[in-house]
Request: fold
Amino acid sequence: MVRITFIGHSAFKIDGEAGSILIDPFITGNPSAKVSDLKVDDILVSHAHGDHLGDSIEISRKTGAKITAIFELANYCGEKGVKAQGVNIGGKVPFDWGNAYWLPAAHSSGTPDGKYGGEPASILVNIDGKSIYHAGDTGLHYDMKMIGGFYKPEIALLPIGGFYTMGIPEAVEAARWLEVKKVIPMHYNTFPAIKSDPEEFKAEINSIGKECIVLNPGESIEI
Ligand code: NI
Ligand code: MN
Reply:
């Protein structure tokens, strides 16, 4: 059993038998963030933007959890004095709790001080026999078809807010291409620019025979 908790925006906590993970832990300055327990083994970051790198460095400093991110972003974190490992697109990264892949995303990635943060990424997490795909910040891109066909995730966390990322129509197509059974919407309604209706998304996802789980910040599901 794996528990997926929505912290808010694109931040999730994933708890499995063998470990706990944070993805894109944007908490400070996130008006929607709800979080109670930050005890984690690993922090996985999709790209360098402030609403994804978020509190990673502070949490790592406090808990000792290692940050894993694309090489340039990991170097940035390492320079701040925390444990960070740099990875790149497509390599299998082993962890005590399973493994993960940083995969393509169609976006950009600059660090808070304006430097190049390396390639933006999506993250596929394999934990306790479950495969969870966090799409990161992205537009619709055709690699999602490859990810669906080859990596076969069972659940996808997809941005639906538009403006900086996919909106609802693109995220519905992404769910098709990823061939997932279940989706959770993310990256919407945190700020006015990314206003979107998760119930509209849910109806569209249901209409193509898939399950959509709309989580309020602080809520979890078990898969
Ligand atoms: Ni971004
Ligand atoms: Mn973002």
